[in-house]
Specification:
heterodimer, A: alpha/beta, Rossmann fold, 23 helices, 18 strands, about 15% strand, B: alpha/beta, 4 domains, 7-stranded antiparallel beta sheet, 6-stranded mixed beta sheet
Chain lengths: ~600, ~725
């Protein structure tokens, strides 16, 4: 039966987008119900599949988003057995590398994906071979032409190239690939083996891309090759907001609909979601100033007329920032805003390090969800990370569906490793897991003991498996490093098992995050500091033709559009730049923007 | 899409066998125990949805027994599909999992493999061994249990698993403890993705050997009628069915209301109360009529009634003749297949095991002439030579057993269409068990066909059947049309061709004094001699490049060589029966005894032609006994065809010779007695063949078994 919905569930423009039969390019303004539209579109197309050999594929920016959408669709009562949803990396791995690796000599004999921690360690080690290069210079991504260095300092490129030559060699010697290489080999396979795109196009009825503005060229090309091979039988649904394209340094960019059409060789309808249900009119008016691509935004939320407070503080000194944050949080709480509806933002992690801890100290009545609040490695492809999700959640009715899915993933991983998973079901795995009872209070030690105990119960000798061994080492090394760093910063409680468990609980505290990290989220109150020229925009972007104005606008647009009700902006003084170059000035375009700010 | 190839490595009674299939109807023929059921089982493990679970439960008994120890070895069952295409949407998921990509992005074939192998741990341990470390290898192998094995399904593989070198490279060389340091091999292909279940993609129907059809009909699970009805009952119009349901309910009520029913009920209640007392009796008790009122259940109460042939009476299945029940069963299964077929799966497979069991020959022939659905591949196994005649030689696989080892042959592999046509026509015309034979003697006429089996039985004491030799009368000298079947690439069985060289036994050049009849006779001899010599050249040339076929020539003609071999008196004994006139009888006897080929040769041929060669052979056959001498070329043909002779067989033959040489009623000659004792020792394995062969010359002096023994390798 075809999936249906009521007028209350979707607005007219959302419904139109969902019902569109052909490929569609949907520019969604902030707060326009993008995820909701995507979710309903998937549910609708799943219900319309006329063959059990067809699939709907959805590509999300994060695993978390994929999980969330997956759960929502299941919540809508639609069968998801013919849905594949995940990141583009997982997609390439599952649908291209695993089945077709045998046609790519470099990975034909098997390969292992190294996680970000291992990659960091390896690059750090290689950086020592070149003077003046650190791991932070080592961003890179692939295009079909080869790899592109993220580092904007051209003078370092020769040395970086020497490092990367060694890096790729070492990975090849160990039959390892990193996340960028997943895309690289997937793209190579798609080009060298034309049947792959053809076959996948025949399997996929719809391919949906979320957050297209952060998609890299190589990713567009992989997807486009499949859509092109489908010759209008495989439909494409692209959704995102070009104004929020803030991952340019990683190669992400908002492709125009014309270029995408040319790449895919099929007509794609250009549509927009223009109704903002999130922010008040005052907020919309405020952040609309920062658009880089002219977009229509209509306030449509029930509280649009609410009189928002928008403040801009340029007088507070660096050392007083935290006191100011405490003041605003208290103020918001007094206004009746719930803690999980408050968000503290800054452009860089380094500004936030320690902030969470100090805020937690100053505001003991609140919980915080921020950097260093995840005390262990979160590498999604790591087997032990996947298992830790089961280890750190309790058997409870509201967690059951997720835990079953995680358990199935673990069983599939074991099967892929050729480990004797004879007849083991998700239920059995969870039952065995539930009967592991440990008194250990140290989080990492707990996980270590739990893993051992569970593996014994399952009769799996994981130590003799190279991959599981490597994953185990990687997981614990990087987790230990993380815990150690957080402890150094003073969060002694961070290593406790109770703290570990919070990671997989539903969010309950005040969010502390970077601007990049709150993509897609929304809060009643958004407080942003560190809005300084050199950070917003990043100093490396100041070398661009426009002096980084575009980048700064996009970041401010993202900050502004997160808020439902109140927005507090801070360009603090006296934050010192390195090399004795004085303090950072306020972000220029922000300082220049004339607005009737409120005083708080 | 259809199965084009099936490879079995180390599975049950196959060490390594490859079967090839064509679109349409295919036959697997073979004697009992040749592995027909195992081939079908292997296909089912991969493609039959109801059997897939079993593939995860392979165990020790599934390994080829000839391996000795199974530990460390792999079982590989590999299916190759043809006519797949990446362009077809319907096949996409299938191609995604199994399609083999070729240059230019073409996908034309797909592979699907079931691999049962030691888990990665064991494989890594083996890979880590130094080359030649037998002790290390054995230490690993000894500890392996079947729980250390895993089942793996892969697609896209390019390896030819039937190639011993490939197997050794991937699995290892256990004789020399050589193992690759790799544990992953791209030739094995890619693991089948979880999104694809090949068994669910295809429609697959298996019809078991019809052994106990009546009980199949009685079981709810196996009754084919129920399956058919179930597949239809989902489509019943509820409106149409509602009145029936109403009536069923009404009937139930009416039955329950019957006076007798009510009386019985109240009697039961009273008796219980009387026996157990009020306290311990059930509170409620009623008798209900249980006529089902749901479509599914009502349908299940339907039964098939059949009136056999032209009788007026329609009986239920168990009243039918066994043959009739089988026919009905088969028909229903075929209909089931047809229903499935209509649901448009990727491919349709129908496997039929030994349809001949209990089916009348004519029914079989008709049935298999007519079975054949477009777009469906049908594979049936048979040991019936009747069905094998109906089938096309191009789509035949022959299974043959040698000891414990079974092999698969494709009789038409690499043959030219014309050659296939010849063989096909021959097989169609002559009901022969040629394809089932363990080894073959091809002869050119009735005389050989009649006399050779008799001579072998009388002289060697074992029949051709016991020797596993099939004697095939080609009825002409067109041996090559049939012997072409026996070849390294086709049927790997030995084939001896017994033919006449037709060299003239007298000067074939006409002399002035020759009468007209002699001149004609000589002309015939000359022509035969020329064509015989030419035949020899052809057959020798063919044998030179084919180790499985060898020709054996009578110097002249069978009858003439029969006499020359030392059987003059046998023919003489038949003279009086052939000729009635005393003068002719005397002349014939004298000529036969003359020792001059020109005289006895012409006479024996005259007699044979006079009687007809076949009738003459039958006449001679009555006279054949253990003293009849087997002409040497026939003897050698038998030795070649049979191949190696076992100790038991040689013992049986020599025992027979001892028995026939033992003069009845008188004292056993001491030499024979000694030989007999030595023969017992040979049988027990105390002395070898060469010794017993040497001693036979003393124990059985001048016996015709001596040249036979010296022919043995």
């Amino acid at each position: 039966m075809t999936f249906v919905w009521t007028e209350k569930e979707l607005s007219a423009e959302q419904s139109d987008a969902v019902r569109e039969e052909r490929s569609i390019f949907l520019v969604a303004c902030p707060g326009s119900g993008k995820t909701r539209t995507l979710t309903y579109k998937i549910a609708y197309e799943l219900s319309r599949l006329d063959s059990n050999r067809k699939f709907v594929v959805a590509l999300t920016y994060t695993h978390r988003a994929a999980d969330e959408i997956h759960e929502r669709i299941e919540g809508l009562g639609v069968d998801t057995s013919q849905l594949w949803i995940g990141t583009i990396h997982s997609f390439c791995l599952e649908w291209i590398l695993k089945p077709y690796a045998i046609y790519e000599p470099a990975i034909a004999h098997g390969f292992r994906i190294i996680d970000s921690h291992e990659q960091e360690k390896l690059l750090e080690e290689l950086c020592r071979t070149q003077r003046g290069i650190t791991y932070w210079d080592c961003d890179y991504y692939f295009t079909d032409q080869g790899y592109v260095l993220g580092c904007r300092d051209q003078s370092k490129h020769a040395r970086l190239q020497a490092i990367f030559a060694l890096y790729f060699q070492q990975l090849a010697d160990n039959r390892q690939i990193d996340f960028e290489l997943i895309l690289y080999y997937a793209s190579r396979l798609i080009r060298s083996q034309p049947q792959i795109a053809k076959v996948l196009a025949n399997i996929f009825q719809w391919v949906l891309i979320d957050e297209y503005q952060d998609t890299k060229r190589i990713q567009y090309e992989i997807v486009a090759a499949i859509v092109r091979a489908g010759a209008e039988r495989t439909q494409l649904f692209v959704v995102g907001d070009p104004n929020q394209a803030i991952f340019g340094s990683l190669g992400g960019f908002a492709m125009s609909v014309t270029e995408l059409q040319r790449l895919c060789g099929v007509p794609i309808k250009d549509r927009a979601l223009t109704e903002n249900y999130r922010s008040t009119d005052r907020l919309i008016r405020y952040f609309s100033n920062f658009t880089v691509q002219a977009t229509v935004i209509h306030g449509a939320g029930p509280d649009r007329a609410f009189s928002s407070t928008i403040s801009y503080n340029t007088v507070v000194g660096r050392d007083e920032v935290e006191a100011e944050l405490v003041r605003i949080i208290r103020l918001s709480a007094a206004q009746g805003v719930r803690p999980e509806q408050i968000c503290v933002l800054a452009p860089w992690w380094i500004l936030l390090a320690g902030v969470t801890r100090r805020l937690a100290g100053a505001l003991p009545e609140f919980h915080f969800d921020g950097p260093g609040m995840v005390p262990f490695s979160r590498d999604q492809e790591n087997f032990w990370y996947r298992l830790s999700r089961i280890a750190l959640t309790q058997a409870s009715p509201d967690q059951h569906v997720r835990r079953m899915r995680w358990a199935n993933e673990v069983i599939r991983d074991l099967g892929n490793e050729g480990l004797n998973a004879r007849g083991m079901t998700a239920k059995q795995l969870l039952r065995e897991s539930n009967s592991v009872l440990l008194a250990e209070t140290d989080g990492l030690q707990y996980l270590r003991l739990y893993f051992d105990a569970l593996m014994v119960r399952l009769g799996i000798d994981w130590q003799s498996h190279r991959l599981l061994n490597e994953h185990h080492r990687a997981f614990f090394d990087s987790s230990a490093a993380k815990v150690e760093r957080l402890r150094r910063e003073g969060s002694s409680y961070i290593g406790e098992i109770d703290f570990f468990r919070k990671v997989f609980q539903h969010r309950s505290g005040i969010t502390v995050n970077t601007i990049h990290g709150v993509k897609g989220a929304e809060f009643d109150v958004v407080i942003a500091f560190g809005l300084l020229q050199g950070m917003v925009p990043h100093f490396s972007e100041e070398d661009e033709a426009d002096g980084g104005v575009t980048s700064a606008k996009k970041l401010l647009y993202v900050v502004g559009s997160r808020a439902r009700k109140h927005l507090y902006l801070i360009s603090e003084q006296q934050r010192r730049r390195g090399g004795g170059r004085g303090a950072y000035p306020s972000t220029e375009i922000l300082a220049e923007y004339v607005f009737d700010y409120d005083a708080v | 899409m259809h199965i084009s190839k099936l490879t079995l490595v180390n599975y049950r009674n196959f060490a390594n066998a490859t079967l090839r299939f064509k679109q349409g109807v295919n036959t697997i023929i073979g004697e009992n125990g040749a592995g027909k059921s195992n081939v079908l089982r292997a296909i089912r493990l991969m493609l039959d949805d109801s059997m897939v679970r079993a593939s995860y439960r392979l165990d020790e008994s599934d390994f080829y027994r000839g391996l000795g120890s199974w530990r460390g070895h792999w079982i590989i069952i590999s299916v190759e599909f043809d006519e797949v295409s990446a362009d077809e949407a319907m096949q996409a998921l299938f191609v995604h999992g199994t399609g083999v990509g070729q240059a230019g992005g073409v996908v034309a074939c797909a592979t699907y493999n079931l691999i049962f192998r030691p888990n990665k741990q064991i494989r890594m341990n083996l890979a880590a061994l130094q080359n030649g470390d037998m002790a290390g290898m054995n230490a690993i192998l000894d500890r392996i249990t079947i729980d250390d094995y895993e089942t793996l399904f892969t697609g896209k593989s390019t390896a030819d698993f039937s190639d011993q070198a490939v197997y050794q490279r991937i699995v290892g060389d256990f004789d020399n403890a050589l193992f690759s340091s790799e544990v992953e091999f791209l030739e094995l292909g890619a693991r089948i993705p979880g999104t694809l279940s090949v068994a669910k993609e295809v429609s697959f129907t298996f019809i078991q050997a019809l052994r106990d059809v009546v009980s199949e009909f009685h079981s709810n699970r196996t009754n084919p009628l129920l399956t058919l009805l179930k597949s239809k009952s989902g489509q019943i119009d509820p409106l149409q069915f509602q009145p029936i349901v109403e009536r069923a309910r009404q009937l139930n009520t009416e039955i329950e209301r019957l006076q007798d029913v009510q009386t019985v009920r109240s009697d039961i209640v009273q008796t219980i109360h009387g026996a157990a007392g009020q306290t311990y009796s059930p509170a409620l008790l009623s008798i209900k009529s249980d006529l089902p009122d749901e479509a599914d259940l009502l349908f299940q109460s339907l039964k098939l009634f059949v009136g056999e042939f032209d009788t007026e009476y329609e009986g239920s299945i168990h009243e039918l003749s066994l043959g009739g029940a089988n026919l009905i069963f088969l028909t229903l299964k075929l209909l089931e297949f047809k229903y499935q077929h209509e649901r448009q799966p990727l491919a349709n497979f129908l496997l039929i095991e030994e349809p001949e069991a209990h089916l009348h020959t004519h029914v079989q022939k008709t049935l298999f002439d007519r079975i054949g659905y477009a777009q469906a591949q049908i594979i049936y196994s048979t040991h019936s030579s009747h069905i094998s005649e109906v089938c096309n030689i191009k789509s035949v696989n022959i299974l043959g057993r040698t000891g414990n080892k079974c092999e698969a042959f494709q009789p038409s592999a690499s043959l030219e269409p014309e050659q296939i046509g010849n063989v096909q026509r021959y097989l169609d015309a002559v009901r022969s068990n040629l394809l089932f034979a363990k080894s073959v003697l091809l002869v050119e006429g009735d005389a050989e066909e009649i006399l050779i089996p008799l001579m072998v039985k009388q002289v060697l004491g074992v029949s051709l059947d016991e020797l596993g030799i099939s004697l095939i009368n080609i009825g002409s000298t067109g041996f090559s049309n049939v012997s072409v079947l026996f070849h390294d690439e086709r049927i790997r069985r030995r084939c001896s061709i017994i033919t006449d060289l037709d060299a003239a036994f007298m000067d074939p050049n006409p002399l002035p004094e020759d009468d007209a009849e002699t001149v004609a006779f000589k002309g015939k001899l000359l022509r035969a001699q020329v064509s015989g010599a030419a035949r020899r050249v052809t057959l020798d040339a063919e044998a030179a490049v084919n180790a499985w076929v060898r020709p054996f020539f009578a110097a002249h003609t069978f009858e003439v060589d029969f006499v020359a071999a030392g059987n003059v008196e046998k023919v003489v004994s038949s003279v009086n029966a052939v000729y009635s006139q005393a003068a002719t009888q005397a002349l014939s006897t004298a000529q036969l005894r003359s020792g001059d080929p020109a005289q006895y040769g012409r006479r024996v041929l005259t007699m044979a032609n006079h009687e007809g060669k076949g009738w003459f052979a039958i006449r001679l056959g009555k006279l054949v006994d253990h003293r009849t001498v087997i002409p040497s070329y026939i003897r050698q043909a038998i030795v070649f065809a049979h191949g190696s002779f076992s100790t038991q067989l040689i013992f049986n033959i020599l025992k027979h010779r001892v028995a026939v040489n033992n003069p009845a009623g008188s004292v056993v000659p001491p030499a024979l007695q000694t030989f007999w004792e030595r023969l017992m020792q040979y049988h027990a394995g105390a002395i070898d063949f060469h010794t017993i062969r040497a001693e036979a010359a003393i124990g059985l002096p001048n016996d015709q078994i001596l040249p036979f023994l010296s022919d043995l390798p």
